Structure formats: structure tokens, C-alpha cells
Amino acid sequence: MSKLHVSIVTPETTTFDQEADSLVVTLFDGEAGILANHAPMIGRLAPGELRISAGGQNHHFYVEGGFVQVLDNKVSVITGNSIDATKIDAAAARKVLAETQIAADDKSEIVEMKNKAMAQARAQIRIAEHA
Amino acid sequence: MANARKLDKRRKSIRNIRKITRTMELIATARFKKAMDRAAAATDYTRRITQVVSDLSAAGLEVSHPLLEPRPDPKKATLLVLTANRGLCGGYNGNALRLALNRRNEMVDKQNIATTVDASGKRGITGLKFRKVDVSNGFTQFDDQPKYSEVESIANQYLEQFITGEIDRLDVVYTRFISVAKQETVVETLLPLGQLTDGLAPAATEAKSEQQAIYEFVPSAASILEEVVPTSFKVKLFKCFLDAAVSEQIARMVAMKNATKSASDMIKSLSLTYNRARQSQITGEIMEIIGGVEAMKS
């Protein structure tokens, strides 16, 4: 069976870069699984979980939005930030969530930014509880 | 002839200075390597983003976005100056400041643009204040390893200002890293973005143009573009910060190397004078003793 080459790239580092059997990404409207020989695709990611299974081993990551690009069995996850699920600071995420929930501003841009921060914090907490 | 003991004291203190400058040089070298690694990682990211953009345009999509459109008659602009938090790095801060001031004067006097100046780095903030330029936003949290999340929050502020029309242009003054031997202080206009692909990695786009794949866009190419454009702005800004950090360490490395060399030269010439002074002192003493002995004989 052919394999996928998965790399998770952030502006600071490359978090993950190796062969894998399959992965599940959180797209903007729900999860999507990617196996080998997937058609070329560019997808928009939502803050959420990224699961990679490689040789019977599972890797969990939190990914903060961005894109996924699939081409020739190469998967690039391009994201602003990604954290290993075991290293998520759930307490910090909860704090952010609580802070962003308090004041709802009337300016639409700020609301949008807050919603984004909230979604990111929620996703982090969810993944942390799973792991 | 100067006092030998005084000369010796001076020589000792210069030796200490040399020790310090050499240590600083070593520290700068280590930091430069770290900063370089980060810059390399960012290049990987920009390459992939550029590829997504080129794939999007290959899909026949008209690349248009409010951030890309030039504004014909800019009224308000922001100039962001990237300098170091610390001095002792040769002309690094001075060059950035000089260029920033020239640019600012040009924008205010000739083009009639109301310009606000933001600065990163303590040296830049104090330097601008000294030259009677108001700094509206000063950032001092950036060190030799700027964090993406910190740059991102600044980038978001600029994006918001640009979209709401508070600014029509964003220029960044920073020291671009070309190679270890060459860095250049430049002004770059980051908002409006203009071409998406330029400046990031033109070579990668060319290489990719041979093999075209038909992509499936989820949810749609337009929606992805909407996300790609702000992201590439953020990455460009981040790259500016990284370049500035790398260049700073190189500048410091070179400055400290020169300082160490000058200290060594000075020690050498002081040693010569010291030895001569000591010798003449000894000669003088011997003469005195001989004179004394001669006096006793008679």
C-alpha cells in the first residue's frame, strides 16, 4: 500500500514530517479523512484536531486553522500554530476562553477576532480532554 | 615617558574589555545560528504558501482582494521601523533610523501623507524620540527569536486599520538579510500587498509551473484566497522581523570582532610603550645607584 508523506509546517518550525498511512483533518465544515492516492485538493482548515496514523501509531495535534494541500501523496498542512495534543495547556486555553466570553464588543472586526480566539481555545480544550 | 605602572593598569583594563567583546562576539555567533534556523523554517512555510497561491491562480481564479488593490491617493500611512533592543552592533540601528527618517520626511513633505511612526526595539524608540519624532507604538518584546504569535497580533492590528481605512499604506524599514556577508537596510511596502507571489519565493513558483494538477478546492477557491491573502501578509511581516533579527546578530558579531581586534592592537602598542617605560625606569635607577656608589668611593 502506498503511503502518504505528511508535513505540518508553521512559520516557526516544522512540527511533523514523516510517512503516514492516513490522516484526519478538521476542515471548515467538519472532519475529512485523507488516505493515499487522494485527489489533489486544497482545503481550508478550522481550528481543531489533526489525527495521523502512521504504522499503527497515532499522533494527535491541535492545528490553528490554515490550509491543507494534497498533491501526489504529499500532504502539507500549512498553519499558524500547531501543538502536540499531549502538550496543550488546557488551563491557559480555558482562561482565554473565559476572557473572550466576557465582553462582546459592538465592532464587527473585533467580534470576529474574538470568535476566532474562542473557537481556537475551545478546540484546544476539547483535544486536551481527549488526550 | 609615562608612568610604567599607569600604563600597566591601562593595559589590564583593555585586556578585560577584550575578554568582554570576545564573549559578546561568541554569544552573537550562537544567536545568529539560532535565528538563522528559524528563518530557514519560515522559508519552508512561505514556499508552501506561495505554492498554494500559484495553484490558485493556475486554477483560473482572478486573484483579487481588498488587500491587494493599490490605493491611488494615500492620505494616511504607517511607517514601521525595526531596530534592535540593544546597541553595540555597529551601524545597524543607525542605518535603519536614517532610512526611516528620510522616508518619513519624503512622505510628509513631498507626498503629503500623514505618517505615523511605529518602532520595534528600544534603540529605535529612543533614537526617534531624540530626533523629535513621535512614536505612536513601540514594541520591545522582540528579541533575537521573534514569536509568530506576537508578530501575528501586530499584523492583525495593521490589517484592521487598513481595512477600516485608518491607514492607506504600511511601509516597513528593516535590514534585509541577503547573505552572511551582505545585509541591506530597505523600505518595503507591505500594505497594499501588490503581487502575492513576489518577494516570497519566485523560484518555487517557476519550478511548479511545469506540473499542473487540477485541484479540488474545499470549500471554494475564493474562500481559500480570502484566507491566503491575510496569511501571506502576516508571513511577510514575520519574515521582516526574522530578517531583522538575523541581521542584528551579524552586525553585532562583526562589530564585536572589530572591537576585539582593536583591543588587541591597542594592547600590543601599549605593551611596547610599557616595556620602554619600564626599561628607562630601570636604567634610571641603575644610574642612580652607580652615581651613589661613585659618590661613596670618593
Task: Briefly summarize what is shown.
Chain A has helices at residues 90-102, 108-130; strands spanning 4-9, 14-20, 22-27, 30-35, 41-45, 48-54, 57-63, 66-71, 74-78, 82-84.
Spatial ordering of strands, largest sheet of chain A: 2-1-9-8-5
Number of strands of chain B: 6
Strand line-up in the sheet with most strands of chain B? 3-2-1-4-5
Oligomer: heterodimer
| Tally of helical segments of chain A | 2
Helix fraction of chain B by DSSP (H/I, runs of at least 4): 55-70%
Tally of discrete structural domains of chain A: 2
Indicate the topology.
The complex is a heterodimer of chains A (131) and B (298).
Chain A (H helix, E strand, L loop, with lengths): L3 E6 L4 E7 L1 E6 L2 E6 L5 E5 L2 E7 L2 E7 L2 E6 L2 E5 L3 E3 L5 H13 L5 H23 L1
Chain B lengths: L3 H55 L17 E7 L9 H19 L3 E7 L1 H9 L4 E5 L8 H17 L4 E9 L5 E9 L10 H7 L7 E3 L2 H77 L1
Parallel strand pairs in B: 1-2, 1-4, 2-3
Antiparallel strand pairs in B: 4-5
Question: Can you put this structure into words, describing what you see?
Answer:
- The complex is a heterodimer of chains A (131) and B (298).
- Chain A has 131 residues and is an alpha+beta fold.
- Helices cover 27% and strands 44% of the residues of chain A.
- Chain A has helices at 90-102, 108-130; strands spanning 4-9, 14-20, 22-27, 30-35, 41-45, 48-54, 57-63, 66-71, 74-78, 82-84.
- In chain A, the strands form two sheets. Chain A has a five-stranded mixed β-sheet with strand order 2-1-9-8-5, with no helix packed on it. In chain A, strands 4-3-6-7-10 form a five-stranded antiparallel β-sheet.
- Chain B is an alpha/beta fold and 298 residues long.
- Chain B has two domains: 4-22 and 257-297, Helix Hairpins (Orthogonal Bundle); 31-253, 3-Layer(aba) Sandwich (Pyruvate Kinase, Chain: A, domain 1).
- Helix content of chain B is 62%, strand content 13%.
- Chain B has six helices and six strands.
- Chain B has helices at residues 4-58, 92-110, 122-130, 148-164, 202-208, 221-297, and strands at residues 76-82, 114-120, 135-139, 169-177, 183-191, 216-218.
- Chain B has a five-stranded mixed β-sheet, sandwiched between helices.
- The longest helix of chain B is centred in the last third of the chain and has 77 residues, at 221-297.
- The radius of gyration of chain B is 28 Å and the shape is elongated.
- Chains A and B meet through strand 5 and strand 8 of A and helix 1, helix 4, strand 6 and helix 6 of B.
